[in-house]
Each structure stands twice: as structure tokens, then as C-alpha cells.
Amino acid sequence: MKRIFLITLLLLSLAGAAHATRIKDIASFDGVRENQLIGYGLVVGLNGTGDSDQTKFPVQSLVNMLERMGITVNRTDITVKNVAAVMVTATLPPFAKQGTTIDITVSSVGDSKSLAGGELLMTPLRGADKQVYAVAQGEVLTNSFSYGGQGASAQKNHPTAGRVPNGALVERELPNVLAGRSSLRLDLHQPDFTTASRIAAVINNAFQASIASCSDPGSVNLEIPPSYAGKTVNFVADLEKLDVSPDIPARVVLNERTGTIVMGDNVRIATVAVSHGNLTLYIKETPQVSQPAPFSSGQTKVVPRTSVKVKESEGGLAVVPAGANIGDVVKALNALGATPRDMISILQAIKAAGALQAELVVI
């Protein structure tokens, strides 16, 4: 309990020290985002751990690939266990140029037992518009193994999914969303009226002009100053490094499965009295056997004997004053000897009483 209290105070001190953060860490520019890519391919070179004959589409894909290479084969003549059908996914970062490489993830879609040691054949990766933006190929790294027989098996990690570092080559570039623009829009990661207003004020003060305005809590509209005409990248670089103090809503997050409690610095509580105590009931069965006298007509019987003991731990009453911050709340709950799981129940009861001035989120 003392360790939990020290960790909480440490988090509070760190939160108090971080008064401001950069704009680039709490917002991003409209259109500057990642794009998801997906493709279907084959992994070959597996040591008998590929898809079985019951999975039809890997063999059909292999036949189609051989035919494109000028080799005509009959599908019924192919029986291989070193080929697996996979789905290949990747994330195309913004402003990725033609010829750069990105990491890819390879996942089996058949009944392959392992992709360890396999190599992904050339696979086109398409975006949501069905256009090919990258081509993937390379050795699959799973950092796992899977071996076994009919009686026993051994497995480490997840052998049917792996990665290929720098396994995809970018072939098509995304349009430059910043070129030739006279205005930009800054999108907040967590929309908030106060934070958006503070960002606009900081930008206007830094550039000594009214170039930022708020139309809603989730975005800030920007007009590029005349001095930065044709130098949008320089304007964005100077803007992103500005410091802003974001406003954080009062919120308490509870995880009942793990007993984790996270409370924001703005959490306040009204005057409330909290009592905590545990009732433990011990029940012990010690049956006895009743034997009749020798040569008598009596019967052997089992005589039940139950021992009941009730133990109630000493409870306490802690009064939390109005306007108390998170530190005061934690001190009061720790003074009662409450465990993290007890704190979850106590905080839920305080919220039900209307004394907790924060949003309670249970995950």
C-alpha cells in the first residue's frame, strides 16, 4: 500500500512539472496522416508447416503464379506443404517518397502451422482506392517456433504471424497536401474548447498577427503569414515547437480486472465522510463419528460439528474536505487501509453520492 501511495505521489509531481507541451504533440495538420495498405501473397520455403491440401486457394494461387512465369501445370498434380497463403499489411507514412522502404506484417490466412523460415514472394500492396502504393518481398521474421508430434508439442510466441523489416518498397507517392496552400487547419487529438482557444492565442502571440481562429473545439484554422509565402514547411516547423498548456478534463479511470486506478490532476471532491471495514466469516466443519457399544444393536452415526467465527476488521471514518485534490483523496483512502480494489468500490460510492466532481470511467 505504501508503494502504491509513493507511485501516485511521483505521478502527481511529474504532472505538476509538465506545465506545457508542444503543439506537435497534441495536434496534427489536416491531411497529414498515415494510410493503410493491404495485399495477398504467398510465403514459400516452409519446412512442412505450410497450408494443407484442404486449403484450396494457396495451391490455386501457386498455379496462377507459375502460369504467369510461363510454366503450365495441372492443379491436381501439385501437393506441397511448404507454401502458405498470407495477408500482408503495412502503414504508409505521410510524405513517403518513391524508393523508400517501410515495415510490413505478414499473417497466415490458411491452416499453416508456422511461417518461420519462409520468404514472402513479391506482393503488391494497395490502398483503399485500389491503387498499388508499395511492393513487398523478403524473409519473414516470427521470433517463434512450433514443433510437435501426435503426443506432444512445443510452441513459443505466435508462429503464424511475423514481420519483414523494410520489406516493402514505396512505388507511388501521396499528393503533397501542403503545397500551394494559403491556409491550414490544425486538428486536436483530444477536442477541447479551452485547449483550442489557448493554441490560437499562443500562435497569434508568437507570430504577432491574428492568423489563428477557432471554429470548433476540435480544430484551429490558420492563415499563412505573407512572410512565409512559399515557405509552408518553415511555417509549420516554427509553429509546431510552440508550447501550450492543454486543459485536461477531470476524469477517473477504473479497471476492475487489474485493480488499476488513474486519476487526473483536476479531480476534485466535495466534503464527504468515508468509512471502510471488512467482515470475515470463518466456517469450519469437523464431523465426529459416534460408535455404538460392542455387541449392541446401535448404529454408527456421523455427528456434524460446525465452528463459526466472525472477524470484523477495525473500520475507520475519514473526512475528505471540499475542494480536495487527488493527493488528499489518496491520503484519506490509504489512511483507511484500502487496497486498490477497495478504492474502486469507494470511488464508485463517492460518485454515486454526488461528491466526486469528475467523470468516472470503468474499463
Please characterize this protein's 3D structure:
The chain has 363 residues and is an alpha+beta fold. The protein is 22% helix and 36% strand. The chain has helices at 2-17, 23-26, 56-68, 193-207, 232-240, 326-335, 340-352, and strands at 21-22, 27-29, 35-44, 83-92, 101-108, 119-126, 132-139, 145-148, 153-156, 161-170, 183-188, 212-216, 219-223, 243-244, 251-255, 260-263, 268-269, 272-276, 279-285, 288-290, 301-303, 306-312, 316-320, 356-357, 359-362. The strands form 9 sheets. It has a 6-stranded antiparallel barrel. It has a 4-stranded antiparallel sheet with strand order 2-11-13-12. Helix 1 packs antiparallel against helix 6 (326-335). The chain is flat. Residues 1-18 have low confidence and may be disordered.
Summarize the structure.
The protein is built from 7 helices and 25 strands.
Total count of helical runs of at least 4 residues: 7
Give me the side-by-side strand order of the main sheet.
Answer: 3-4-5-10-7-6
- Helix fraction, binned, reads 10-25%
C-alpha Rg (nearest Å) = 33 Å
Query: Could you tell me the number of beta strands?
Result: 25
What proportion strand? Answer: 35-45%
Classification by helices and strands: alpha+beta
Given the C-alpha coordinates, what overall shape results? flat
Largest sheet: 6 strands, antiparallel, barrel
Q: How many discrete domains?
A: 3
SSE layout:
Layout: H1 2-17, E1 21-22, H2 23-26, E2 27-29, E3 35-44, H3 56-68, E4 83-92, E5 101-108, E6 119-126, E7 132-139, E8 145-148, E9 153-156, E10 161-170, E11 183-188, H4 193-207, E12 212-216, E13 219-223, H5 232-240, E14 243-244, E15 251-255, E16 260-263, E17 268-269, E18 272-276, E19 279-285, E20 288-290, E21 301-303, E22 306-312, E23 316-320, H6 326-335, H7 340-352, E24 356-357, E25 359-362
Helix pairs in contact: 1-6
